[in-house]
Amino acid sequence: VSHLARNSGALGKENALVHKGLERLKAAGIAWTKDYYELTRQLYDALLVSEYSSGAYDAARVAIDEVVQNAKTPDEKLIAHTHCVMCLMSETSEYSRGAEEGLEILSKYGFDIPQSPTKTVMAKEEMKYKLALRNRSISYLTTLSIQDDSLLALCQQINICAMYSGKLDVMKLLTWKIIQYVLKKDDVKRSNEFATTAQALNPRIRDDKSNYVQSVMVVCYAMCLLQPFRSLTDPFLQSYKDCK
Length: 244
Hints:
Elements: H1 2-7, H2 11-27, H3 37-53, H4 57-70, H5 78-92, H6 95-106, H7 119-133, H8 150-164, H9 168-184, H10 195-205, H11 212-223, H12 230-243
Helix pairs in contact: 2-3, 3-4, 3-5, 4-5, 5-6, 5-8, 6-8, 7-9, 8-9, 8-10, 9-11, 10-11, 10-12, 11-12
C-alpha cells in the first residue's frame, strides 16, 4: 500500500503507513528478527526515502542509522548510504564533505579512490580505463544491457558532490572506475541516473576551455549509462557539442 501511495504522489500517506508498520513490528518485539528481517529492512528503506523526500533530514538520518547498524550486507545498506550523501547536499550543501564521506563509503564496495589523487594515481587509473575499453569506442558502452544499479546511484551522488566542490580529479577518477565496473560485470548494468551529472556540469565548464577533458569524460560517463533512446541521448549529444 505504501508503494501505491508513493507512486500516486501521496508522500504523506506513504510516510504514515510505513511508520505504522514499523511501530507494530517494534511493539511486538520482532523488528529485525529472523522471520521479519527483510520486512523491517524494506520498511526502513522506504521510511528513509520518504523522510528525505519530505525534507525531514533529521528523521531520515535516524532511519539511515538504523539500516546501517542492522542491515547484514553492504548491498543492503546501499540505499541508506546513498541518502546519507544526499542529505548532506540537500540540507546544508556540504558538497566537499559529501564527496569525502562518499569516497569512504565507496571503499567498502571495492572502489579505492583517494581524496586527493596524485598525478601518478591518475596516470595509472587512466591506463586501466583504456585497457578495459580494449581499443573500443566509448560509444560501445551504449550497446550494453540496461538495469538499475544501486551502487551507480551512490556514485552519481558522490560525483555531483565532487563536481560542485571542485574535486575534478576525483570526478574523473570515479568516472574511469565506473566504466571499468560496468565492463567487468558479467551481467552488465547501466543507469540513466548519471544524466544529471553531465547536465549539472555543462554550465560550469562552458566558458572554461581548460576543463574540456573533464567535461568530455563526464559526457562519456553519461553516455555509457544512458538508455539508447533519442529522447534521452539528445541532451547529452548537445552537451558534448557545447564542450567543444
